[in-house]
Amino acid sequence: MGTSSFSYTNTTPIQNMGNTTEEKPQIPLLTPYKMGNFQLSHRVVLAPLTRQRSFNNVPQPHAVLYYSQRATKGGFMLTEATGVSDTAQGYPETPGIWTMEQVEAWKPIVDAVHSKGALFFCQIWHVGRVSNTGFQPNGDAPISSTDKELTSQIQSNDIDNAGFSPPRRLTAQEIPQIVNHFRIAARNAMAAGFDGIEVHGAHGYLIDQFLKDGVNDRTDQYGGSLENRCRFAREIIEAVTAEVGADRVGIRLSPFANYMESGDSDPTTLGLHLAETLSRYGILYCHMVEPRMKTLGEKTECLHSLVPMRRAFKGTFIVAGGYDREDGNKAVEEDRADLVAFGRLFLANPDLPKRFEMNAPLNKYDRNTFYLPDPVVGYTDYPFLDETA
Ligand SMILES: Cc1cc2nc3c(=O)[nH]c(=O)nc-3n(C[C@H](O)[C@H](O)[C@H](O)COP(=O)(O)O)c2cc1C
């Protein structure tokens, strides 16, 4: 974790009261950055974090405080994964954005974040086969690229679940309807006041179930070749950018991850292909999860790097996965990333950018309360720096 001996060669001369010039070390994570048309004052991004406190899939008033606690002027924040339709859920009490009730419920949350001057994108997802009949309308089978059942009972995001049901393979004719759900969710998110959309293409959920050859066993135009496996993601990006404009769209990808039995035999080629292809749509950013994140919770050292994808993608490049102050600063300084998303550290430290600025100690996160339905405990009760002092 972070060291106390942090120093940088980049310095900005500042005048002090005695009329002499002092060198103030610049902290790369806290330098401004222009992301497309958006001016950010720092590079510490709130990663998307499922918190399972949106009862009946409707965002709740307690989320106003939670998100506004983490909002800073010129900061960039992502919502927790938010369902695009009534078939998109696989975990209890996760929010959606397919009904007007949900759109209305998001509005005060977005307003609170905006009133602090932060930029707020909605992460939209469909879990695909990471679900069971209990989450599906009429007790139907979950949908996927495949009819292969998830065998392991490992818990995604450490979330308890009651197991997975065998999925139903979508026909090619049904796919435009699912793509359209993403489009409508994007439209709804803009109606709720969000500044843009992050398409969740990571972590073994529906889009990833198409991307990865470890899952996708189709023989139609959505399976087989790399191009075909990426078709569903491309169609979603086309639909969402047509709806809200490419300058308000980002995508999250985890080519190296194997969560939910969704691995690829050649993740470097997949990641590069996606970075190059999606670049052509002129989307705002690509948000990639580090190869070292073998599971959502642990980082392991690994020889793979996101640098080739960073070079291939023309827009803003966001990295995530196991970052702390020190290596986040290093990633920015070495130009391996424009922005760094922090998950667990931001969850437990609502004033994370300030703590980074002061090189202050961090609150420890408590994974036992990540997904408690409690509106306060483990949610809005992590102390701010001035409260701990
Ligand atoms: C409680 C929790 C919930 C998460 N929910 C999401 C999510 O909704 N969408 C997503 O893309 N990633 C999700 N993740 C992954 C994080 O965004 C992040 O990539 C991961 O925690 C690694 O980053 P970190 O080491 O900074 O925590 C979640 C992780 C945690 C710990």
Written overview of the protein:
It catalyses: (1S,2S)-OPC-8 + NADP(+) = (9S,13S,15Z)-12-oxophyto-10,15-dienoate + NADPH + H(+). InterPro entries: Aldolase_TIM, OxRdtase_FMN_N, Oye-like. This is 12-oxophytodienoate reductase. It is a single chain. With 389 residues, this protein is α/β, with parallel strands linked by helices. The protein is built from 12 helices and 15 strands. The strands form 4 sheets. Strands 5, 6, 7, 8, 11, 12, 13, 14 and 15 form a 9-stranded parallel β-sheet that branches. Strand 14, helix 9 and strand 15 form a beta-alpha-beta unit. Helix 1 runs parallel beside helix 2 and helix 3 packs parallel to helix 6. Flavin mononucleotide binds next to helix 10.
